[in-house]
Structures are given as structure tokens and as C-alpha cells.
């Protein structure tokens, strides 16, 4: 192929110039910037064909820096450049598997986490088939497919040596830090206003929740990098210590309660893994949630917590926001309860198959309790349940919710086993970092549904894939350390 390109170099160059000029002309006529991306897309496709590992590093770098754009009259949207790159990686995955069906290693398929992800995907297909909104559900299935191909499957072939893990850290860390610095500066110019945080994050993130969630997931990685920098020089240690303080300040000024809880929970998971207690965390959490729901549902006790319109409103400072949360007078908290009630009631009509992905918004309002209506219940932004468990329940049925609950439990249980199986300090730290990032995403998604967004979803599935890789590495390392069981006894 390289010889063919070299032989026809002038023709290829001429074709490239003509294509570039044509795209510029179409852009000038239509005003649509997507046409300018065509030459770069083709260039990246060629790169992917010859060196797709480099293509993955470009994708990873693009995740934090990507932005959402709308076209066709704001009826469709995509994030660029990461989502088009994911489309190419999906195509690459299909080609690789078609050319060599056994290219995916057996240890990957045998892993329990892989089995859960496959079960989730198969059940998603069932839910899409019976969806009440088929076209929107197919769009959801397509997005899930290229997410899994790019960040769950492809990383298995990428992360082979320690240098790959280090490179991945810098490729995520550098663009994220640049974006955080920009947002922090813009917010500082606005006086760190609680009400204007949305203005500061505009264009770079969906909203301050998306921003704070991404920060809370990257923060543990920086803390682990600080730990690994021990013995690497005073400058590097000081640099990471400064970044920890900077990111902590950025999370605080993002004014998102879930992100603060996510950071706390990630360090709780760290301690639980370290002392072999993590297997108690999720069962205790699930038992607590079941108790709360059962208590609230008995004799309709939840009605006693309905909001008072005179005292439930948006607040002008984060302190007032927190105080109102504990008093039950915060409008966002009350709106969550309003949606949760609607989701639970709605799920009773489709308890197994669900209503279909992307269906909640179109059907939930008749199922809500009007006693919990707030000033924002009109929902012009078309947001959903604000809880990923309930989103799975209502849109994909009880099996999907149970599989997600099982995935979270299995992930932390495996992370604990892998951490203690590894003897290498570097890989132990990587295992802890992956577990802490996943923990932060879990808490944020308990109060939102962000796994389908490009920044959060990519890191979520990357964490699962990396833990599977770390699991395999720990088993290989363990086998090398153990004496051969079949060795013949010495002759006397």
C-alpha cells in the first residue's frame, strides 16, 4: 500500500488539493463548517489505516477538548472531533474482526466485566426492538456501539507497556488542564458567581454538571500521579501538589454537590480497597436505598416531603444552595424527586422491556405527582430522570437496571482483587486510579445520567476496559512468580 501511494504521489497530492478547494468552496456557499472537516477526516482515516494506535492517542487527546455542534436546523448534534473519530474506530473494529475473528484475546471474553457489558448490550438491542420511539432508540444504540468499540474494545490492544499508561495520562491531563484554566479564568472574571457558572463553562461543556463531573473524575488520577512522582524530583512533586490544589478549587467553584460527594466517595473506595472492605460498600449502599424507598412508599410517606412553592426556589450562593438542600427547599432536589416518582410509576407499565432508550421525556409527565411540581418542571431542556438506575429501569426495563447494579458491584470487587494481586507499585497505583475514577462517575450518575455524554461516557468505558487489562496483567505476573506445579520431584 505504501509503495502504491509513493508511485502515485503526485496524483494523490492533486486529488487532495482539489478536495480541499472544493470543501472550502462548499463551506463558503453553505456556511456549514462541517465541510471544512472533510479533508481532515480523510487524512485521519488514512492515518488510522496505517497506524491506528496513533489514531487512538489522537482520540484520547480530543475527548476533553471536543465541543458540541448542531446542524440541520438544530435537529441533530454531534461532538467534534471525538465522535467522528469514534465512527472511524467502529468501522476499524468491524474490519479487524471480519479479517481475523480471533483477534480479540480469549482472556478478554472470559472476564466477568466483559460478560456483563455484553449482556447489557444484548438487552439494549431487545429494548430498542420494542421501543416506543424507534428512531431515537436506534440513535442511542448507534452511539453506544461506537462508544464500546472505541473505549471498551480498542484499548485492549493499546495498553501493553507502562509507557502507554503514562502517555494516556498526559494526553488526558494536558487538554483538561487547559480547559479548566480557561473556565477558571472566565469564572474569576465573573466574580466566581454561583449564578454565572453556566456562562463560564459555555461552549466547552454542556453545563456546570458535565464540567464538575469530568473534573471529579480526573482529580483522583492527579492524586495518584502525585503518589507515583515520589522519588522523581522536587519539581514534579511540587507541580502535582499545585495541580491538586488548583483542581480542588475548580471543583469547589463548579458549585455541584454531586461532584464534591464523588471526590469523597472516590477516596472512600481507595481506603476500602486498601483494607479489603470494598465488597461491603455496594451491598450496604443498595440495602440503604431499598430501605429509603420502602420507607417512603409505605403509606405514601413521600407526600410529606412535597415542596412548598413559597420556600422552594433557585438560590444565589452555593452556601444557600447547600442549606436549602438539607431543609428540603432546594428546587433542583425537589425536581429530582418529581422525576424519580414519574420514572418509578412509568416503569410499572413496561417493567421488563422498558419504554425504549431516549423515551423518558416524551411519556413521563402523566406519571408524575403534581404535588411535587416545581418552577422548572416544564423541562424545556428535555433532561431525563437525574438518576442512572431509574433511567435504566424506565427506558430499558428491570434487567438493565439490575445489570448496571451488578456491573458496579463487580467492578469494585475485581478492582480490590487486582490491586492486591499486583506486586508492581506502578500497576497497583493504576488499578487504584481506575477504581477511584469509576467511583466518582458512579456518584455523579446517581444524581444525573451522563454515561451517554461524550466526555463522561468515554472515560467510564475506558475505566472498565483498563481494569480488564490490569486483571490480565496481574494474572500473568502471578503465574510467572509461582513455581511450576508440574515440575518433577528431584531424584534421590
TrEMBL record:
Zinc as UniProt keyword: no
O-antigen ligase-related domain: residues covered: 243-404
Pfam families: Wzy_C (PF04932)
InterPro entries: O-antigen_ligase-rel_domated, WaaL-like
Localization per Swiss-Prot or TrEMBL: Membrane
Alphabetized UniProt keyword annotations: Membrane, Transmembrane, Transmembrane helix
Transmembrane segments: 12-28, 34-50, 55-73, 85-101, 113-133, 139-159, 168-188, 208-227, 234-250, 256-273, 280-298, 388-413, 425-447, 453-470
Membrane topology qualifier: Multi-pass membrane protein
Full protein name: O-antigen ligase-related domain-containing protein
Species of the source: Rurimicrobium arvi
Amino acid at each position: 500500500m505504501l509503495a502504491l501511494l509513493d508511485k502515485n504521489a503526485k496524483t494523490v497530492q492533486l486529488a487532495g488539493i482539489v478536495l480541499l478547494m472544493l470543501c472550502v468552496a462548499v463551506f463558503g456557499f453553505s456556511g456549514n463548517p462541517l465541510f471544512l472537516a472533510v479533508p481532515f477526516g480523510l487524512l485521519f482515516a488514512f492515518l488510522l489505516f496505517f497506524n491506528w494506535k496513533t489514531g487512538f492517542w489522537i482520540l484520547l487527546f480530543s475527548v476533553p477538548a471536543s465541543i458540541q455542534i448542531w446542524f440541520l436546523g438544530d435537529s441533530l448534534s454531534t461532538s467534534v472531533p471525538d465522535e467522528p473519530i469514534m465512527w472511524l474506530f467502529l468501522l476499524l473494529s468491524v474490519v479487524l474482526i471480519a479479517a481475523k475473528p480471533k483477534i480479540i484475546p480469549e482472556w478478554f471474553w472470559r472476564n466477568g466485566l466483559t460478560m456483563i457489558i455484553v449482556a447489557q448490550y444484548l438487552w439494549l438491542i431487545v429494548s430498542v426492538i420494542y421501543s416506543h420511539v424507534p428512531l431515537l432508540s436506534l440513535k442511542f444504540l448507534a452511539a453506544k456501539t461506537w462508544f464500546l468499540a472505541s473505549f471498551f474494545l480498542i484499548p485492549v490492544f493499546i495498553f501493553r507497556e507502562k509507557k502507554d499508561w503514562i502517555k494516556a495520562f498526559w494526553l488526558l491531563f494536558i487538554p483538561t488542564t487547559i480547559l479548566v484554566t480557561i473556565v477558571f479564568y472566565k469564572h474569576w472574571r465573573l466574580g466566581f458567581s454561583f449564578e454565572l457558572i453556566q456562562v463560564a463553562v459555555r461552549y466547552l461543556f454542556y453545563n456546570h454538571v458535565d464540567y464538575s463531573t469530568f473534573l471529579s473524575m480526573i482529580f483522583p488520577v492527579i492524586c495518584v500521579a502525585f503518589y507515583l512522582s515520589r522519588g522523581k524530583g522536587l519539581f514534579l512533586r511540587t507541580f502535582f501538589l499545585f495541580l491538586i490544589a488548583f483542581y480542588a478549587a475548580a471543583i469547589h467553584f463548579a458549585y455541584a454537590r454531586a461532584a464534591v460527594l464523588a471526590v469523597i466517595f472516590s477516596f472512600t473506595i481507595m481506603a476500602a480497597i486498601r483494607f479489603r472492605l470494598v465488597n461491603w460498600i455496594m451491598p450496604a449502599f443498595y440495602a440503604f436505598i431499598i430501605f429509603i424507598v420502602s420507607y417512603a412508599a409505605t403509606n405514601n410517606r413521600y407526600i410529606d416531603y412535597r415542596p412548598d412553592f413559597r420556600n422552594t426556589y433557585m438560590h444565589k450562593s452555593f452556601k444557600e444552595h447547600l442549606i436549602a438542600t438539607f431543609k428540603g427547599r432546594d428546587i433542583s432536589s425537589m425536581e429530582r424527586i418529581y422525576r424519580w416518582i414519574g420514572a418509578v410509576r412509568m416503569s410499572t407499565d413496561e417493567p421488563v422491556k422498558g419504554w425504549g432508550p431516549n423515551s423518558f421525556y416524551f411519556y413521563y409527565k402523566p406519571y408524575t405527582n403534581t404535588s411535587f411540581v416545581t418552577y422548572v418542571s416544564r423541562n424545556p431542556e428535555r433532561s431525563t430522570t437525574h438518576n442512572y438506575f431509574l433511567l435504566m429501569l424506565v427506558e430499558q426495563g428491570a434487567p438493565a437496571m439490575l445489570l448496571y447494579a451488578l456491573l458496579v458491584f463487580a467492578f469494585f470487587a475485581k478492582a480490590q482483587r487486582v490491586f492486591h494481586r499486583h506486586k508492581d507499585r506502578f500497576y497497583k497505583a493504576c488499578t487504584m486510579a481506575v477504581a477511584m475514577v469509576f467511583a466518582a462517575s458512579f456518584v455523579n450518575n446517581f444524581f444525573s445520567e451522563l454515561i451517554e455524554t461524550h466526555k463522561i461516557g468515554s472515560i467510564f468505558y475506558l475505566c472498565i476496559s483498563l481494569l480488564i487489562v490490569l486483571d490480565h496483567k496481574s494474572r500473568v505476573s502471578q503465574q510467572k512468580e509461582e513455581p511450576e506445579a508440574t515440575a518433577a520431584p528431584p531424584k534421590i
